[in-house]
Amino acid sequence: MNEIVDSFGLALGMVLRLDAALVEIVLLSLKVSLLAVALAALIGLPLGAALALARFPGRHALIVLVNAAMGLPPVVVGLVVYLMLSRSGPLGVMGLLFTPTAMIVAQMILVTPIVAALTRQGCEDLWAEYAEQLRSLGVGGVRAAATVLWDGRLALVTALLAGFGRASAEVGAVMIVGGNIDHVTRVMTTAIALETSKGDLALALGLGLVLLALSLLVNGGAQLVKEAMAER
Fold first, then answer.
1. Measured between alpha carbons, how far is 228 from 152 in angstroms, rounded to an integer?
2. Whole-angstrom Cα distance, residue 18 to residue 32?
C-alpha cells in the first residue's frame, strides 16, 4: 500500500514539475492523435455528408459497412498496416514502419469510420429538415452538402471529439506499427503498458493522470457542445 501511495506522489510530482520524459511522450501522443483526427476529418466529413444526401446503388450497404467499421479491432488494423508497410509489403520502400507516420495512419483508419458515421447521422437529420427549402433555392450537390455540414458544425465537433477520444486511448495498433521505440514512437498508452510491466509505477501513473485528464476534457467538451445544440 505504501509503495502505491509513494508512486502516486511521485507521479503527481512529475506532472506538476513537467518532467521532461513525461512531456515528450505526451506531446508525441497529442501530435499523432491530432494529425490522425485531422486526416480522418478530411475523409470522414465529406463521406458522411455524401452518404446522407446522395442516393446511389449500394448506398445502404456502404452505410452498413461504415457503421460496422466503427468497431474495427485495433490489433487487426495494426496488423494490416504493418503488412502494408513492412519491407515485403507494397509500401515497404517508403520506410514508414516504426515511425510516427505509421501510427498516424493506423489511428486514422480507426477514427475515419467514427467521424463518417456520426457525420452521416447528423447530416441526414438536417437534410430531412432543410431538403425542400434548399431544393427551392436551387441548392444541390456539393453546395447542399457544404450547407448542411456548416449548419451542423456543432454536431460535427462532437464527432471529432469522439474520434480524438478513440485515437488517444489506442494502444494495440500503435504498438504493432510503432514498435514503442523510446524517443521515437513511444506514446502515452504504450508507455503506460511498458512502464507497468517494468514496475516503474510513477511514470505509468503520471501518464495515466494526463490521459485521464484528456479524457475528461474531451467528454466535457462534448457535453458543452450538446448543451449548445440544445439551446439553439
1. 12
2. 20
DSSP letter (8 states) at residue 86: S
- Please give the Cα distance from 217 to 72 (Å, whole number): 25
What value does the CA radius of gyration of the chain take, rounded to a whole number of Å?
21
Task: List, in sequence order, every beta strand (DSSP E) within the chain.
Answer: none
Q: CA nearest 66: which of 109, 17, 95?
A: 109
Superfamily (CATH H level) for 2-231 = MetI-like (1.10.3720.10)
- Characterize 216-228 residue by residue with b for buried, 16 or more Cβ atoms within 10 angstroms of its Cβ, and e for exposed: eebeebbeebeee
Residues 6+ apart with CB under 8 A from 9: none
Residue 19 is which amino acid? D
- Cα separation values, 103 from 41, 48, 125, 228, Å: 17, 24, 34, 34
d(CA 56, CA 213): 43
Q: Domain limits of the chain?
A: 2-231
What cell was used for 40? 480522418
| Gap between the Cα atoms of 55 and 207, Å rounded | 46
What confidence tens digit (pLDDT) does each residue in 162-204 have? 899 889 888 989 999 999 999 899 999 999 998 888 887 888 8
pLDDT in tens, 39-77: 999 999 999 988 888 888 888 999 999 999 998 899 999
- Cβ neighbourhood burial of 12 (10 Å; 0-12, 13-18, 19+): middle
First to last CA, the chain: 50
